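Propose amino acids for all 335 sites.
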């Protein structure tokens, strides 16, 4: 059963007492760090990209945009990821900035996608401090922490929190009876709030920006086609992201004739039979393409499967990156 279904069912009420316990734990933990327990600091600029809900809010596309910007500015960016569902141990160097050194099974789909898109240093580790020290020894000083808003044991210079404007907080309950990782009031810890997919008013005095996903191209057999190439085509589609409905809606808005759409669990590891069945269905129905997301495709990498390249377009982009730049320069990590 998908999490959002649980959150909207009677099961949510049954789990609510556990949410109360979880909420108390989060409040105590956050108060302890900074008062009793000492946070650790990395020798460089640390920017965190995260959210307060489970599920996709666009963290990976934003990490890619920030890393791309920093690289173009001539800084030395590196991404530190927890490598969710990857099979690595300790610290795994995914990319050294020149070549990819890991595979998707070892490091997880998100870290592998970031490395593949930008070819910048990417490291996965459950211990972000040790990962940062590892990267510092290699001359890097601009650390982008992927999915780290709850990682309060490490100091950061800038906290960015993403919120889905259409479904900001679900039923407003904490895990496990709701989607919240911590109470809504904890958004106050963020320096920047980025709202994706829709409009939503934030009851806090913060820098607020808005963004949307822009489908840019259809990639098939290693070749990019204009996104209009999908319009009017018969499509077999599938996805294993946290919100597959978003991908399904995108295909329909692009004018694709969606014959069949298969939803897989988030971060699903595809089996050979899964893909074979979809390819067979394409042949049986006379569909033009079997299409998925780029995040799903990196776990498959089959030429018979097409994917949609998407970028995150930030409104007032110059102002957004100006805030990051000023924060970075104020620490004088420009060596």
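Proposal:
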């Amino acid at each position: 059963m998908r999490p959002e279904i649980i959150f909207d069912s009677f099961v949510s009420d049954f789990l609510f007492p556990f949410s109360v316990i979880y909420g108390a734990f989060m409040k105590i933990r956050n108060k302890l760090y900074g008062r009793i327990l000492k946070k650790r600091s990395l020798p460089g600029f640390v920017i965190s990209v995260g959210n307060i809900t489970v599920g996709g809010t666009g963290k990976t596309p934003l990490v890619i945009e920030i890393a791309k910007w920093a690289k173009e500015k001539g800084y030395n960016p590196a991404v530190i990821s927890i490598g969710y569902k990857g099979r690595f141990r300790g610290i795994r160097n995914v990319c050294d900035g020149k070549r990819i050194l890991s595979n998707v099974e070892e490091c997880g789909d998100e870290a592998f996608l970031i490395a593949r898109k930008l070819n910048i240093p990417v490291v996965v580790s459950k211990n972000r401090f040790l990962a940062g020290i590892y990267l510092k020894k290699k001359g890097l000083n601009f650390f982008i922490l992927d999915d780290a808003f709850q990682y309060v044991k490490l100091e950061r210079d800038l906290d960015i929190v993403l919120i889905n404007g259409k479904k900001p907080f679900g039923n407003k309950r904490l895990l496990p009876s709701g989607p919240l990782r911590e109470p809504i009031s904890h958004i106050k810890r963020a320096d920047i709030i980025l709202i994706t997919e829709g409009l939503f008013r934030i009851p806090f005095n913060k820098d607020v920006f808005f963004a949307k996903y822009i489908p840019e191209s259809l990639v098939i057999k290693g070749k990019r086609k204009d996104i209009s190439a999908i319009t009017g085509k018969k499509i077999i589609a599938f996805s294993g992201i946290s919100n597959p409905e978003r991908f399904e809606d995108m295909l329909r808005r692009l004018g694709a004739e969606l014959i069949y759409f298969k939803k897989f669990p988030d971060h699903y590891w595809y089996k050979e039979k899964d893909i074979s069945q979809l390819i067979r269905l394409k042949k049986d129905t006379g569909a033009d393409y079997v299409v998925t997301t780029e995040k799903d495709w990196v776990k498959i990498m089959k030429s018979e499967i097409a994917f949609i390249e998407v970028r995150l377009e930030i409104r007032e982009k110059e102002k957004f990156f100006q805030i990051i730049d000023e924060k970075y320069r104020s620490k004088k990590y420009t060596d």
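The chain has two domains: 3-212+313-330, 223-302. The CA atoms of residues 235 and 259 lie 6 Å apart.
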